[in-house]
Write a structure and sequence with these properties.
Blueprint (H helix, E strand, L loop, with lengths): L6 H9 L7 H9 L2 E2 L8 E2 L14 H10 L3 H11 L2 H18 L12 H17 L8 H16 L8 H14 L5 H22 L11 H20 L6 H17 L26 E3 L4 E6 L4 E6 L14 E6 L2 E4 L12 H7 L7 E3 L12 E8 L3 E8 L6 E9 L4 E20 L5 E6 L2 E5 L5 E6 L5 E6 L6 E2 L7 E2 L1 E20 L4 E7 L2 E6 L2 E6 L2
């Protein structure tokens, strides 16, 4: 395969290649034999080139994946471009040549060299190197052509293509690579393949309301940014996508401002770390039955409630159905614990995937199925002038039905009505994960005070006649969260438990100055006495 590097295709490649801000520091560390693959990962040391079969003792797959992307080489190339020192290019060449010698002709998979994510990133990094270094340092033409062709064949073959965000990585890599083909017919064929797969991905991976369906605000943001970048490249090469795809992606951008709170923080749902949205906060409510997401925003209270129940695929999915996160007065109160890492065998990761890492309702000592035939969904919602309601149903456990109804009042009060039923006696657990900046204190039987860093005060109370409760603190008690990759922080977790066949939890969360004098549910009517005012609300 003949490759042509021109001012035009190299210009597009460089324009859309992102390099970390501290690239020079990374390059200097590489010269010393220190390789930091990703924030949160340990530094790998090497002598001349990295060990391509390196196995980390805990997160082997993660280290292998990011090692074989060769993403770290971009820091060397950018350091050369901005500082004109060939020492960076010299090391980069050693790394690329050694990778080719050791991994190009693998007969069987012994590491992560030939994996959708690694191939997609690596071919763009190899092109970035070849297009920007002096001719003397370039990979020899026939050798480079062989490397390039093997990557293109991998990206083009259906058997290697995954219909999720990794597939989008492959399409972007194929699009960028096709710009370097000399054969115009082959270029056109590759571009159309990438375009067709991207168009399908936009329709496949987003709901009717433009929510990305991989169960994570982090991946919604990231994949939407990828796709908008891909759209810009197609526009630049005069092969634009039709307007229906662009409108869907515009709505997907707006979603970032809906789901983030009034501090612009993303909820750490699914595989999401703590992050800040760059999209202006939007004061609208949002229900997406397909994605299993409901969002209530209140401009006056500066509050955002995100309710999560249901899924369309299992990518980045946690067992977090019926869970919610809540921010009030621009402060996070109840949160999801986050992702921690991607190592399924890691006991800490297993906790983060479990219901205990989410503010939800679950069955003690049982796990539930994520099979698509199980009824797990946002069932109904109501948005009125002075209160809003959302309800979810969860039938993932064997012979158990769980239902959660949340009533949100305009004064910043929230009512949780959790119903559980089974033919057999079960231990049902109402679980709460507190933001670790909250001061949490047990004031009475199942009555707790919460004080925020800004001294806002709230009361959390479960009103049943009989229930037990326990407060857990710190990692040893499975009370932790992960705001940054591979890092944990201690927090407080509360469990309220009932051992029955059928039961209902009635729980209120209110500002400290609001008094709940009576609360009951009868025949689907919620009766509540708040500050002497009795209200009756028809539930969904």
């Amino acid at each position: 395969m003949v490759i042509v590097i021109s001012k035009e295709n190299a210009g597009i490649l460089n324009k859309y290649t992102k390099v970390e801000k501290n690239y020079l520091e990374t390059a200097e560390e590489l010269l010393k034999g220190n390789l930091k693959l990703l924030k949160g990962l340990e530094t790998i040391t090497f002598e001349k080139v990295p060990d391509w079969d390196y196995k980390h003792s805990i997160s082997s797959n993660t280290y292998q994946l990011y090692l074989h992307t060769l993403n770290f080489t971009k820091s060397l190339i950018k350091s050369y471009l901005f500082h004109n020192n060939l020492k960076y290019v010299s090391l980069a060449k050693q790394i690329f040549e050694d990778w080719i010698d050791k991994n190009l002709e693998q007969e069987e998979k012994s590491n992560y060299a030939w994996y959708d994510h690694t191939v997609s990133s690596r071919i763009q990094n190899i092109l970035f190197y070849q297009a920007n270094v002096p001719e003397y340092f370039q990979i020899e033409e026939k050798r480079f052509s062989k490397v390039f062709e093997k990557h293109i064949k991998f990206l083009s073959r259906y058997k290697n293509y995954t219909e999720n965000n990794h597939g989008i990585m492959m399409d972007r890599a194929l699009l960028i690579s096709a710009l370097f083909y000399k054969d115009n017919e082959a270029k056109k064929e590759a571009l159309m393949l990438a375009k067709n797969r991207i168009e399908k991905a936009i329709l496949r991976d987003y709901s009717y309301n433009s929510t990305h369906l991989e169960n994570s605000p982090d991946y919604h943001r990231m994949v939407t940014n990828w796709l908008n970048g891909i759209v810009m490249i197609f526009d630049e090469i005069k092969l634009p996508l039709s307007n229906k795809y662009k409108v869907k992606l515009k709505n997907a951008i707006d979603y970032n401002g809906i789901i983030s709170n009034y501090n612009n923080e993303y909820p750490m749902i699914g595989d999401t770390s703590h992050g800040i949205s760059k999209i202006q906060k939007k004061d609208i409510d949002f229900i997406d039955y397909e994605a299993g997401i409901g969002i209530f925003n209140d401009k006056v209270m500066k509050s955002t409630l995100v309710f999560n129940c249901g899924f369309e695929n299992l990518t980045h999915k946690h067992r977090d159905d019926l869970s919610f996160v809540l921010s009030v007065n621009k402060e996070q109160i109840f949160i999801d614990a986050g992702k921690y890492n991607y190592s399924k065998k890691d006991p800490i990761r297993q906790y983060f995937l479990s219901p205990r890492a989410h503010t939800t309702l679950f069955v003690q000592n049982e796990t539930y199925s994520l099979a698509y035939d199980k009824v797990i969904k946002v069932e109904s919602s109501y948005i009125g002038e002075d209160y809003k309601i959302i309800k979810g149903i969860h039938m993932g456990y064997d012979n158990v039905t769980l239902m959660r109804t949340i009533v949100s009042f305009n004064d910043g009060s929230y009512i949780l009505i959790d119903e559980a039923s089974s033919p057999k006696e079960k231990i049902y657990v109402q679980n709460f994960i507190l933001n670790n900046e909250i001061k949490f204190k047990n004031e009475a039987i199942r009555k707790y005070s919460l004080v925020t860093p800004n001294n806002n005060r709230y009361i959390l109370q479960e009103h049943s006649k009989i229930a037990t409760s326990k407060i857990f603190k710190g990692q040893k008690s499975n009370a932790m969260l992960s705001k940054k990759f591979n890092q944990v922080e201690d927090t407080v977790r509360l469990e309220i438990r009932k051992k029955q066949k059928n039961t209902t939890f009635l729980t209120t969360f209110t500002p400290e100055n609001i008094s709940i004098e009576e609360i009951k549910v009868n025949s689907n009517i919620l009766t509540i006495n708040m500050d002497g005012n009795i209200r009756e609300i028809s539930l969904l």
